[in-house]
């Protein structure tokens, strides 16, 4: 069982369990989106500058049902949750 400091993030990110993720610079999915959030902790990813804005992280790959770069995971959550979430990394 995950510790309580991890469990809430696992609950938020459970839809990503077992998927491959690729570390990359953040790029929005389309012209109607300027940011995304970490699927686990809700940290913000964007290209613009700002307090607490992340510019790179782990994104879903083409094999994710909603496609590449649809979901993002920050470095901290990836490191903390990768074993419980059975995440693997894809080569660039």
UniProtKB/TrEMBL annotation:
<protein>
    <submittedName>
        <fullName>Uncharacterized protein</fullName>
    </submittedName>
</protein>
């Amino acid at each position: 069982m995950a510790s309580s400091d991890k469990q809430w993030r696992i609950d938020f990110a459970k839809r990503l369990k077992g998927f491959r993720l690729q570390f990359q610079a953040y790029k929005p999915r389309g012209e109607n989106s300027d940011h995304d959030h970490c699927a686990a902790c809700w940290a913000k990813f964007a290209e613009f500058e700002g307090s607490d804005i992340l510019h790179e992280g782990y994104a879903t790959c083409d094999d994710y049902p909603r496609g590449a770069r649809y979901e993002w995971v920050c470095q901290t959550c990836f490191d903390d949750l990768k074993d419980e979430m059975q995440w693997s990394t894809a080569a660039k």
